[in-house]
Design brief:
elongated; about 70% helix; disordered N terminus; mainly alpha; about 0% strand; Ferritin; binds fe (ii) ion; 6 helices
């Protein structure tokens, strides 16, 4: 998104309003749409980090390295999304997605990892929908890296589940 010029900022600034209207007209997400989408992803990543960490308590030892690496990645993307929301002068959500409770209700660690992987696929789909609407190069690059990392982790988890 183009930065507004360093003129006295006001929510009703005509420059800001025109930029938002142009973004929407050209098919780019408005700032509010970006904030909503990034916060939804942040809540999902926080849920994923929680599930991966909590699963270390009951998962078989051979799943530990994978769960630790998923938890570390999810925490990394929480930090990225938080920083991007702050760049947009938005408040990062403090919530954890409802996915966490649904996942932890699954008693079997393998079935839970499968469910976690479905959640990761949901994130990849959300990112694929969002990226074409992102004009800002830095945000676009960060989201693409997040998507590629998720695809990599989904494959690793799927291989681990197959080898059991
Ligand atoms: Fe994730």
């Amino acid at each position: 998104m183009a930065q507004t010029p360093q003129t006295p900022a006001s929510p009703s600034s005509p420059v800001c309003y025109a930029s938002e209207a142009d973004d929407a007209y050209m098919g780019f997400a408005t700032r509010d749409e970006l904030v909503a989408a990034l916060n939804e992803l942040l809540e999902a990543e926080r849920a994923g980090a929680y599930v991966a960490r909590a699963s270390l308590n009951d998962a078989p030892p051979e799943m530990a390295d994978l769960l630790k690496s998923i938890a570390a990645d999810e925490a990394r993307w929480c930090a990225m999304l938080t920083a991007q929301l702050e760049r947009l002068s938005a408040s990062p959500s403090a919530k954890r997605g409802a996915f966490a409770e649904k996942a932890m209700a699954i008693a079997d660690p393998h079935a839970r990892l499968l469910f976690l992987n479905r959640g990761q696929n949901w994130v990849v789909r959300k990112l694929a929908e969002l990226m074409p609407k992102v004009r800002d190069d830095a945000l676009h690059a960060a989201l693409r890296e997040m998507s590629e990392s998720h695809v990599h982790n989904i494959d690793a988890a799927a291989r681990a589940l197959e080898s059991d």
